[in-house]
Every structure is written in C-alpha cells, then in structure tokens.
Amino acid sequence: MYAEAMEKINNHPCYSKGAHKYYARIHLSVASACNIQCNYCNRKYDCSNESRPGVTSAKLMPIEAIKKVLYVGGRIKQLSVVGIAGPGDALANPKQTFETLKLVKEHAPDLKLCISTNGLRLAEFADDLNALGVDHITVTINAVDPAIGAQIYPWVYDARSKRRLRGVAAAALLLERQIEGIKKAVANGTLIKANSVLIPNINEAHLPAVSAKLKEMGVFLHNIMPLLSEPRFGTHFALNGVPSATAAQVAKAQALCGLDTAQMTHCRQCRADAVGLLGEDKSAEFGYGDYAPRSLDELKDEYQRANRGESWQAIENFRKHLDKASEDLRALSSDGKTALIAVTSQSGERIDLHFGSCERFDIYEAGDRGYRLYSKRSVASYCSGEDSCGTGPIEGIKAALKGVQLLLTAKIGRCPETQLKSIGLNASDKYAGEPVGKALLSAARDYFGGGEREAEA
Ligand code: CLF
Ligand code: SF4
Question: How would DSSP label each residue in 359-371?
C-alpha cells in the first residue's frame, strides 16, 4: 500500500515535496458555482479553500479546458497533473467537472487527475471519480466540531434535501458529509489531502483535533494554509477584524498536527487557473486566443509530439542521482554535516608526513559516521630543505587547499599555520602518527562539537 501510494505521488507536485521542483500542474477553471459559504471567501474571487484570496480566474467551458491542456502540455513537458480547483467548488459543478475530467482522460491519458472540494458532495461522487481515475482529492476541513464550524460557515446548501441550512446545523451537515465522503474515497484507494485554513482565534487551537480525525480516517496529507485577511478582499472575516494568520502560527500548528498527519509545507495557494511549477505561475503566458480557436486534432498532435515520456525519464534519472548523493551523505553523517579535511601522509595510512615536506594533500569529506576520499591535490612543497619560513610557495598551497576546513599533519611550523588560518583553515598536529581513518573521524567530531564520542575506526 505504501509503495503504491509513493508510486502515485511520485510526479505530483503537491503531494510529493520532492516532485514540486520538477513537475508542473495546470488548473482548469471550469467550476464556477459553490454550495456553501465560507466566511473567508468573497465569491467575486477564486475559492479561498485552495487559492490566494483576491484573485479572479476566467471561467472555461470543458471543451476550452481540454484545448488548453493540450496546448500547454505541448509546451511544458514537465506537465504531469490536471487539477480542478475552482473558481467555485469542483463538485458543486458536477456536469462541467466530470465532462472536463473525461475529456482529459480521453485525450491526455498520461496526466494525473486531481480535484479540490469542500466535501459536501464527495460521498455522492466518490465512486464516479474513482472510476475516472481521479486518485488525488483535496477536501477542505477547518473544524471537526460543529460549534467551531458554525463560526466559519454561515450557510450550506444541501442538494439532497434542496434546503439551505444555517448555523450549527449547517456546519454539522457539512462535517457529516465530509467524513462520509472521505471514508468512501479512502476505501476506494484515493489519496486524500485535507486543507485547513488557520483562522486565528477561531480554529487555531482546534487544528490538532482536526489532524487527529484526519489520521483516524486515513487521510494522506494535511495542508494548513494561513488565513489571508485584508479589507480589500471584502470577506466577512476581513470586514470584521479577523486578522491574517502569521507564519509562526502556521509553523506551530504544523508542528502539533504533524504528530498525527504528514504535513504539506510547500503549498503556494494557487489560482484556479494556475499553470506551471508551484510558485512559478505561467498562467498569463497562455492566453485564451492561443488555444480556444484551434482544432482539437491539431492541438492533440502538438501534445503528442512534445513527447513528455522522454522528459519525465530524464527527470527521474536526475532525481535518482540526487537520491544516491544524499544517501552517500547520510552514510557519512547523522545530521548531514560534513567537513573537508586535508591530511599529510607518506604511507597513505597514517598521519606520518610533515606539512613542509608534503607534495600531495589527500582531501577527505568526513562526518561523525564516516569519511570518503574527495580529491588529491599536488603542490610544490613548502620547505626546500633550508630555513625557508615565509619564503616557501605558500600561495600555491593556499590555492590548492581552498574550501578545506581542517588540516591534519604530523608537524607544522608557526608561520605556515598562521598563513593557513588566514584562509579559514585550521591545522593540527594533534593526530600525528595516528591511522588516517581514526584521525578523520575524531577530527570531524571535534569540529562539529561531538568530540566526546568514541572514534570507531
Ligand atoms: Fe491543484 Fe490542489 Fe491538485 Fe495541487 S494545487 S488541485 S492538489 S494540483 Fe497544490 Fe496549489 Fe497548494 Fe493546492 S500548491 S493550492 S495544494
Ligand atoms: Fe468560497 Fe470555496 Fe468556500 Fe465555496 S468552498 S465559499 S468557493 S472558499
């Protein structure tokens, strides 16, 4: 199950932090209506459950939306996810949302499908979404206590009973449907991300209880978003003095909630028509006139010629190299800290050579757990046999040892030691005669403040 989930999120920029630097998403703004009211939302703008307040996205018809996907996909090879996140609620507009998802599945089947919803109608559509291959769904849950929910949602419109509920009854119904929907989707194997808007003094202290409930339901990821509250947004909260959440409040909530549910920390609160890598929105570069008048066949052809498979493979190869490099680093150090240490050694096994006679420095990268040979750097030796203090080729040695933090040597004079200090390199003859490995580990631990631990080599 875990491996399957990892496979699913591998190229989803929101669900996988590792993917967000490489893979792009496109949001299709096909869902304009909403079936609830949130006190942090002004309907003139995009759904604040997923988007930055004060932003308005142009609405698209499903056929325009698929044309946009093909056009953008033909130009952004890292495109891997299509999301429907507004401007209203994806599932309050089932006709437009499902028609769009079906078109994407038919014409761009290599893209992942993702939606964002307030959850009111999720239970009703969870199976249809699953059948279409939507395996990433975001549900916004701000409270698991209807009394708190009632301070956030003034009303909820129930399509089943065709009734508009208000107050605690509205919040209770929303919560009941969200729980029902999430359970159903999780049972289908869908990866659920929950968004919570941190609203100071309203649900701030309640978020750990939300996170505990998310864990109980098998929610995959929790995204705590700060309330952005400015009078110009015209929301109920902004007009009634509820302040924006601070970064410190979000960090504190993430730390507490992270005890139960994995936290998303790289959300960019995108627009409902966002395009590109997270935090690098290219929506303005793809105008309606670029794709809408063109034929579907022509755009499909461009999309296929972009050959995204090759680009994705190149990204994956690069990520594998990076993983390997960090694995190597982990093997050297328990906390990621390593230092470059030069040694002077005639035998290659012990610190048995004086600095002045050294014609080749062996440079190691060392941490508290291990070390590896980094490079060997040849120099003209400092001593020429006479008393050459101050006249030896120290500049060449300083250049060769640039970037090295420590030098372990059998002996070094005061003059060159002072010269090396000027480039931030500390020399020591404390390990004279010791095996190189043992000396490296001891020196690295001393350097990073863990000198009391026993050297292992
Ligand atoms: Fe879009 Fe949302 Fe899907 Fe991502 S965004 S529907 S899960 S593809 Fe991502 Fe944007 Fe944050 Fe949303 S950074 S606002 S979490
Ligand atoms: Fe606004 Fe989204 Fe809330 Fe609907 S669900 S009221 S669009 S924030």
Answer: SEEEEEEE-SS-E
